[in-house]
Design a protein that fits this description.
Number of strands of chain A: 5
CATH architecture of chain A: 2-Layer Sandwich
InterPro entries (chain A): Anti-sigma-factor_SerPK, HATPase_C_sf, HATPase_dom
Radius of gyration of chain A: 14 Å
CATH class of chain B: Alpha Beta
CATH topology of chain A: Heat Shock Protein 90
Radius of gyration of chain B: 15 Å
Keywords (chain A): Kinase, Serine/threonine-protein kinase, Transferase
Number of domains of chain A: 1
Largest interface: A-B, 26 and 24 residues
Pfam family, one (chain A): HATPase_c_2
Number of helices of chain B: 4
GO molecular function, one term (chain A): protein serine/threonine kinase activity
Oligomer: heterodimer
EC number (chain A): 2.7.11.1
Distance between the termini of chain B: 48 Å
CATH superfamily of chain B: STAS domain
Strand content of chain B: 15-25%
């Protein structure tokens, strides 16, 4: 698998969340993703970028084009924060459970919209969420 | 932060979202709309999302909040112009927007609210 260095951008404001969405849109379009799949991955990015900003206290997002062993292209997004971490991952991935005033759709929704989803978290150290969407 | 303009057409308030929505803009729009409904006594609100390329859970919740809020102030809300890719994504995200009325376009939304449509077209001005 080749993973060319992607662009990394800070997430420190609501405007940065919008910027991440635009960056992901451009990367998904450049990879040749269908409009529906572009919309899905940008929506997932919006949920995850907001989590990074609101729950993680800010962090960064990396957007990178990827190609798997069979030559299939895709886009990978890595959201990293150094916030409080997630004490109960199973709970955080449960539909409708919310730590704030949201709908509890952020993490489970992003997981459904992506093809691959990986979450690493440590209480007191931070959280990294990686999602990948492959071209159909 | 950008603010979304609210236009008034008769008894209807029209919000046409033309910017990339960030969360503060969304919250400001809710407040601005509540204020305008009370000040104008509008009976309907149309949110046109033709130009909106994604609706995530925060934006989706805004539609539901505006719908409930305006109902409390005796106004109906209709969301119009949702793109097919946005609708597909919303369903997969798990957001059904129950309680929010939708119409395919602005004209159908106006009809749904029972608002009179302008009759400007060939011959419309001169017809008896």
């Amino acid at each position: 698998m080749t993973t060319p260095a992607g662009d990394s951008v800070p997430i420190a404001s609501n405007d940065d969340v919008v910027r991440v969405r635009q960056l992901v849109r451009a990367a998904a379009a450049a990879a040749g993703m269908s409009l529906v799949d572009q919309t899905k991955i940008v929506t997932a990015a919006s949920e995850l970028a907001r989590n990074t900003f609101v729950h993680g206290g800010g962090g960064s997002a990396r957007v990178e084009p990827v190609v798997n062993a069979r030559g299939r292209a895709g886009v990978r997004l890595v959201f990293t924060d150094t916030g409080g971490g997630i004490p109960d991952v199973a709970q955080a991935l449960t539909e409708g459970w919310t730590s704030g005033g949201g709908l509890g759709l952020g993490l489970p929704g992003a997981r459904r919209l992506a093809d691959e989803f990986e979450l690493e978290t440590e209480v007191g150290r931070g959280t990294t969420v990686t999602v990948t969407k492959w071209i159909r | 932060m950008e603010r979304v303009p609210i236009l008034k057409i008769g008894q209807v308030l029209l919000v046409s979202i033309q910017v990339d929505l960030q969360d503060q803009t969304v919250l400001a729009l809710q407040e601005d709309l509540a204020d305008r409904i009370v000040r104008t006594g509008a009976r309907g609100v149309i949110i046109d999302i033709t130009a909106v390329d994604i609706v995530d859970s925060f934006i989706g919740r805004m539609f539901a909040t505006i719908a409930s809020m305006s109902r409390l102030m005796d106004a109906e809300t209709v969301v119009v112009g949702m793109r097919p890719a946005v609708a597909i994504t919303l369903v997969e995200l798990g957001l059904s927007l129950g309680g929010v009325r939708t119409a395919l376009d602005l004209e159908k939304g106006m009809r749904l609210l029972g608002a009179p449509l302008p009759a400007i077209g060939p011959g419309a001005v001169d017809s008896p």
